[in-house]
Description:
The chain is of the alpha/beta class. It folds into 2 domains: 15-46 and 294-384, Aspartate Aminotransferase, domain 1 (Alpha-Beta Complex); 49-292, Aspartate Aminotransferase, domain 2, CATH 3.40.640. The protein has 13 helices and 17 strands. The protein has helices at residues 36-39, 48-58, 71-84, 95-112, 132-137, 141-144, 162-171, 194-207, 228-231, 277-292, 295-312, 340-346, 369-384; strands at 15-19, 22-25, 30-33, 88-92, 119-123, 154-157, 175-180, 183-184, 190-191, 210-214, 238-241, 252-256, 319-325, 328-333, 349-350, 352-354, 358-361.
Amino acid sequence: MSALMQTYARLPVTFSHGEGVYLYDSEGRRYLDGISGIAVNGLGHAHPAVTRAIREQADKLVHTSNLYRIESQEQLAAALADVSGMESCFFGNSGAEANEAAIKLARLHGHRRGVKKPAIIVLDGAFHGRTLATLSATGNRKIQAGFEPLVAGFIRAPRNDAEALRQIAANNPGVVAVLLEPIQGEGGVRPLDADYLGEVRQICNEHGWLLMLDEVQTGNGRTGTYFACQGLGLVPDVITTAKGLANGVPIGACLARGDAAHTLGAGQHGSTYGGNPLVCAAALAVISTVTSEGLCDNATAMGQVITETLMADAAAAKIREIRGRGLMIGIELQRDCGELVTQALDAGLLINVTAGNTVRLLPPLVINEAEARELADGVARLIRDFD
């Protein structure tokens, strides 16, 4: 019996190695990776630039702690500021940690404005992590169950309803920020309306709230721009990101601009491992590759190939809706379809199902047209045969 805590319902496969968009199991069988480790391996597997960066850095220095300056951390912060338009950056080790930093930043921002009990507006259907604070911000009672009492200080609102935010503002003087995902990933790959997001920005401006975007899943080229907000013409005060930032080496980042960029001071937040030389080397290689090789544009083009291939297939009759942007694709079926995950595995495809009835595709950004059609054709066959 495994000594692991049984926190995952793992599929019956063990991978030994990967190359590009493919993984190989311990028996030598090949699988087309349509989920990239849940939007993590944006450059695919064993990408030479990332492998080289990790190897070269590991030969020199892995960790020193944030008691000292770390040159590559400063370089990474500057690179992220450049691609995001933000001004400062805090590094942790995961998306949940990045969101924890944003939550703390917002509360401190509120206290400095004289708000004794700061509150953050979050949305129905949201997912922000599994630490206690981020779990409390998440809009999913199923995964919250058993972990009460949850952290106070969050006010939940329906998505795409700006009037609800105005009503909250009128009745809750303690609100200091809004935290939302431009596209709700775990919630079923549901993009928020562009007009709604524009109104959220306006409401935040009117009340002095911070607009904080959780781009843990949507960031790093996934949706066709480096961050999803850039494709919407939306300028937030805080962006959180992780997942694809270092192609599998654990990292999280909280980016901020304006007053938010200078809110946290020495001793008010920290991370032992955050922004260590090894992970920063990997992340710098990712940013360089995504920007220099046009992978944001490729995400847009290949997402269109996948969507058009699916809609041209007979499987389209069983598809209620295809949502998303770039290579973050949700295919909503007429009923729950969790069993498609194991059927796909048997067919040599790795996919995910979220929100019960939505097939989620998050393939590597390096996928080419032939591979995109292979993925779409494979998913179409699964849907056609799904009764």
